[in-house]
Amino acid sequence: MKEIMEQNKQIEVIDFRKIVKILWGHRKAYIKVVPIVFVVACAYILCFPRYYDAEVTLAPETDMPSTGGSLSSLASSFGINLGDIQTTDAISPLLYPDLMDDNGFVAALFPIRVKSMDGEIDCNYYEYMDKHQEEPFWAIPMKWLNELITPKDDIKGGGKFNPYVLSRHQQSIVKAMREHIGIGVDKKTGVIGISVRAQDKLICKTLADSVKDHLQLFITNYRTNKARIDEQYYSKLVSDAKHDYDKARQMYATFADANMNIALESYKAKLTDLENEMQLKYNTYTTLMAQYQAAKAKVQERTPAFTVIKGASVPVKPAGPKRMIFVAAMCIFAVIVQSAYYLIKEYK
């Protein structure tokens, strides 16, 4: 019994009245510190430029074999889309987000024409990312210093631009583009989502539409690549067959006109041979023409259709930075730090 009483004495009871009394005794310090923190937080967060977000969601047509209804339903209940697994494409829609890792795909966005809401900026996307990005004032000297220290390694020469041979500065622009553009795919529905961030609301909307068009063009070119190669191949065969047929027809007509009144069997046999050769060339030409028309139809068949579920719109409010939340959080943090300091000091 005596041991239990000693243990109860050792239990410390939190006296909230005493805590409030201690903190209330330092109220003047709160009145001094919190406004200072408020002003400093406002001055700090106002240095960061505002940015806007725009999103586009679209559903592409997929070329996949049909799956059993019961099996598909069972798989979908576990969040698995059998269509994505059984698609015949080498590039699954789940790999579309990885396209942003390819310099060629990102560099194709360089020529996009952008224009700001106030009209002061009118240039391509590369120039916008390079020369028209607002930064905190303390980042400007660091940027200049970095340019002075970092050796210039710009790629020079009159050759064609190669997105896989970039200078260090160009690599930094490409990296910034990857941070501002995101592509995602819903594994269950296959819906593609595109998110874009920019410091101007109109540019943000323009980029979202342009990235959507660029992605659609990439998917279309990929899906129709084999069919377009076949179409070009049959087009060349049809051209050659047409040339051979015209040549055989001209030879037959010339020989027939030159030997119209001759009744020799040798001439008749020669005329028959030319006629048969002309007919053979004609049959080849018509067969290849049918295959060429089928190849053209295959290109159209392989061209996917896209349904835009949510189009990009000019954002009304900036996505960040959250200035009011940041300032409020800093003030609350200052109060917590002060309170902890006073309480620790008092109990010591």
Detail the topology: elements first, then pairings.
Layout: H1 2-10, H2 16-25, H3 27-45, E1 52-60, H4 69-77, H5 82-86, H6 103-107, E2 113-115, E3 122-124, H7 125-131, H8 139-149, H9 168-180, E4 181-185, E5 192-198, H10 201-258, H11 265-302, E6 306-310, H12 323-347
Antiparallel strand pairs: 1-5, 1-6, 2-3, 4-5
Structural class assignment:
alpha+beta
Total strands: the figure is: 6
What portion of residues is helical?
Answer: 55-70%
Major sheet characteristics: 4 strands, antiparallel
Mean pLDDT: 83
Structure annotation, total helices: 12
Describe, in plain words, how this protein is organized in 3D:
By secondary structure, the chain is of the alpha+beta class. It has helices at about 1-10, 15-25, 25-45, 70-75, 80-85, 105, 125-130, 140-150, 170-180, 200-260, 265-300, 325-345, and strands at about 50-60, 115, 120-125, 180-185, 190-200, 305-310. A 4-stranded antiparallel sheet has the order 4-5-1-6. Strand 2 and strand 3 form a beta hairpin. Helix 3 (about 25-45) packs antiparallel against helix 12. Mean pLDDT is about 85; it is low at about 65-70 and about 80-85.
Question: What is this entry, summarized?
Answer:
The protein is 60% helix and 9% strand. The protein is an alpha+beta fold and 348 residues long.
